[in-house]
Amino acid sequence: MTKQHRAVDVCVDAMIEDLRTLVETESPSRDAEALKASAAAVAAVIERRLGGRAALVESPAGPHVHWAAGGDPEVLILGHHDTVFPLGTLARRPFRVEDGKATGPGVFDMLGGLVQAIHGLAALDDLSGTEILVTADEEVGSHASRALIEERALACGAVLVFEGAADGGALKTGRKGCGTFEVTITGRASHAGLEPAAGINALIEASHQVLDIAALSRPEIGTTVTPTVATAGTLDNVVPAEATVVVDVRVETAAEKERIEAAFAALTPRLDGARLAVRGAVGRPPMPESASAALFAMAKRLRPGLEGTAVGGGSDGNFTAALGVPTLDGLGAVGGGAHADHEYLMVDAMAERARLVTGLVDAIRRA
User: Fold this and answer.
1) Which residue, 98, 232, 290, 364, is the most exposed by fewest CB within 10 angstroms?
2) For the sheet containing 177-186, what is the strand order?
3) 317 closest CA partner among 112, 108, 186, 163
4) Per residue of the chain (367 residues), what is the pLDDT tens digit?
């Protein structure tokens, strides 16, 4: 057992206290100083509730927080402390608890889940075999944390991810793989009135490419390919020499990941003289429902009415599931409004979710 730890019952007031601390330490992705303060706040909450020492693991994206109880690793509690909200959001939307809801930047995605996980562990008599990893860059792709996530997942052999719950409190038993592609088109500028034919119109080329890219979608098997951002041109009387198209991709299978990546690599210009450059990949592989089946069955035995669902968004659980490590997601806050001003957490669900952590970790270690 971690030194100085004593099991305590779940207390909602204490969870609200810790949630306030984390929300009021703003943590926008890519803000190194803010993330340093946020990591320190997360580490302090872990140490206060669980004992031991939480290490700050430095990275180019900001510090990750890693805590281990000792003993043979068996369960990894996985989350992130970065949020999508810029500094100053708190002043406009301060932390509040009213009418059964907690609101404020990051309460649902995913600071509430972190708090519930920590307090659920604190209710265990024996913490041996448990680890917590809270990363600093999940919202921007996990490029600086993926290797550490995969290392600890393989070492532990089971992963519980504390992203917010799906609608109605359902756990997330599957996730699509997701990625972003950027297609840059290079043409040639010319005067749009005097000699338009002398140019190579990057905007027209981009239009062809957008239609070709959108045609890659296969929604009937869960594949969506969605052009989301396009830029082109400089002045209204200049044939545009450059254009850029950004594309969001979601896939349910590894085979579709390979098909989409190959299709982007094979894009070719339609206009003579135009050039294409393609960057990107399906960076988060799909999380198949098979990866969560055993852990979800354990959760169902603990909470017979609990539902599970597959969702389109990605998380760090995609990485761990792709390694073959049993992974269950959506164990965090019950609420909604992720990444939006109306983000909220349901306070009356916090204790039950924390106790689910207690039961799941105990069941995994006994299995």
Assistant:
1) 98
2) 224-232, 242-251, 177-186, 275-284
3) 163
4) 444 567 788 999 999 999 999 999 999 999 999 999 999 999 999 999 999 999 999 999 999 999 999 999 999 999 999 999 999 999 999 999 999 999 999 999 999 999 999 999 999 999 999 999 999 999 999 999 999 999 999 999 999 999 999 999 999 999 999 999 999 999 999 999 999 999 999 999 999 999 999 999 999 999 999 999 999 999 999 999 999 999 999 999 999 999 999 999 999 999 999 999 999 999 999 999 999 999 999 999 999 999 999 999 999 999 999 999 999 999 999 999 999 999 999 999 999 999 999 999 999 999 9
For residue 181, what are the β-bridge partners?
247, 280
Q: Helix, strand or coil for residue 257?
A: helix
10 Å Cβ neighbour count for 59?
17
Structure tokens at 218: 């296969």
CB 159, CB 327: distance < 8 Å: yes
CA distance 344 to 363: 30
Identify the helix (H) or strand (E) that includes residue 367.
none
Global pTM reads 0.91
Q: Which residue has the tokens 């430095």?
A: 58
Q: Are 151 and 309 in contact (CB under 8 A)?
A: no
Q: Which two tokens stand for residue 299?
A: 């959760």
Distance CA 47, CA 353 (A): 21
Angle at 337 between CA 31 and CA 351, to 5 degrees: 95
Q: Which residues contact 362 (CB under 8 A, 6 or more apart)?
A: 124
Two tokens at 115? 């708090």
Respond yes or no on whether the N-terminal peptide bond of residue 350 is cis (omega within 30° of 0).
no
Tell me how far apart the alpha carbons of residues 286 and 31 are, in angstroms, rounded to a whole number: 29
